[in-house]
Structures are given as C-alpha cells and as structure tokens.
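Would you mind giving me a polypeptide sequence along with per-residue structure tokens?
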Amino acid sequence: MAFFLETLIGGLMAGMLYSLVALGFVLIYKASGVFNFAQGAMVLFAALAMARFSEWIPGWTGIDNKILANLLAFVIAGACMFVVAWVIERLVLRHLVNQEGATLLMATLGIAYFLEGLGQTFFGSDIYPIDIGMPKDPVFLFDSVFPGGLLVNQEDVIAAAIAAALVILLSLFFQKTTTGRALRAVADDHQAAQSVGIPLNRIWVIVWCVAGVVALVAGMIWGSKLGVQFSLTTIALRALPVVILGGLTSVPGAIIGGLIIGVGEKLSEVYLGPYVGGGIEIWFAYVLALVFLLFRPQGLFGEKIIDRV
C-alpha cells in the first residue's frame, strides 16, 4: 500500500507540473482561438533569462544574498517576458486580427523558432542551473501509519504547491475580474467583442503577458529539477495530451487533465511496464489523448462545437 501511495503522489506531483505548462496553451487559445506552438520556446526563453540573470546579478550589484538575487532575477525575467509579449502583439498579432486560424498557427511556429534563436543569442546554449532554494532531499512521512513511512520528494511537493497556487490565482482572475471577463468574451467572438468596445490588441498583450509569467514559473521549476537546457522546449510536447484530455478552453480541465496524465504515466509504468518491457511512461499520455480524440474530441471540460447549416 505504501509503495502504491508513493507512486500515486509522484504522479500527482508530475501532473501538476504538466498542468502548469498546459495552462499557457489554454490561456492563449481562450484569447485568440489559436493553438500556441511557441509555448515550449517561451518556457525555455523564460528559464534561460531566470538562470542567467540570477548568475549575473551578484556580479553586477554585489548582492551576496541568494534569495534577493533570485527575486531580482525573477522580476527582470518577468519584465523580459512582458517585453516579448508586447513585441509579439505589435509586430505579429496586430496584423493578423480576424485571420484564419491556420495563419495564426503558422505565426506561433515562427515565434517559437525566433525565441529559441533569441534565447541562444542573448543567454548562450550551455546547460545552466537554477537554484531557487527548494530542498532536493526526499523525506519519509507517516512513519506511524506505514512501516518505514512514505518516501516523498520535497522539491516535487513545493513545485506542486506553487503550481496549484498559480492555478487558483488564474482561475480567480478569469472569473472575478473585468479583464478576465473581457478575455472570455474575446475568446467567444473577436468581432463581437470589438463591437462592444473591448480593445482586442490590448487583450492579446495582456494574455501573452500572463502566459509569459506562467512560462516563467514553469521554466523556473523545471529548470530547478533538470537544469536549463534546450530540451526544455520538448516539455510543451508533454503537455499536449493534457490540453487534449482536459479541453483547450478550460483552465480546470488543464489541471484535471494534468493530474490524470501524471498519475496514469506513473502507475502504468510501475504496474504494467514489467509485463511489456517498460517504456509505457513515454507513450501512455499520447495513446490516452488519441482515445479522447476519437470519442470526445472536445476533452473532458471543453465545449462541444456545433455548426448549424
């Protein structure tokens, strides 16, 4: 029982991190109706900025306090993501208002390659560590309940808590604020939103800024776990089944989808892997996403689209 719970907890922790990346996809899709293939590049660019600025700031300012240096690096990296969002809206999206979805999709692919090259030019292409002070040693919990206790990774728990807090804030932002309601209106119909006075260009800047902050947090956590390297862009591919499962328009769907994928990967690898030779964790999420595309393409929480003729 203890081993099962350890596997389950590990899956839940991984699922929350998948959800954090998937949120970037959902935010952009809700505001523009396009799938943002640049999300992985945004995670990489934000993580590179965080890693390099946290390394450079002590030399620039003489600050020896690691916490303060990381805080300044986070603020500067966040400002960089705001600038990136503004430039993307000004130079790309503003000229593609009311264009076909395929056009916007190709634009995000171009943005992805641009950000990867820009990140390499400004910050380098080596593997950089991010030390934000999260404890990496595992701990044993519930010794009195289970013999030997449950082995839990502290870093995963803290990362999952950060992801959960960000998800709650974003949910409140969309549901309770005027800007959040305007974002939902733009997602429903661009032209109708413009007709009632909602400035589409400003809304797109806001949503790309929010997606940039989400990418920064995701890049910071994944960079702390794995180191900042260009393979971080593939994390976005790991989040694709999550948005398919939860629904492209649902913030709660991204959370539930991530948890299902994370738990499913861990349990299937541990309990089914020995019978099929292993490797289930690599393809499990994509097979599950394929099943949903066949039987419920809108996902668990997505809205079913009906075209009437």
User: Anything to note?
Assistant: The chain has a mean pLDDT of 82. The chain is about 70% helix and 5% strand.
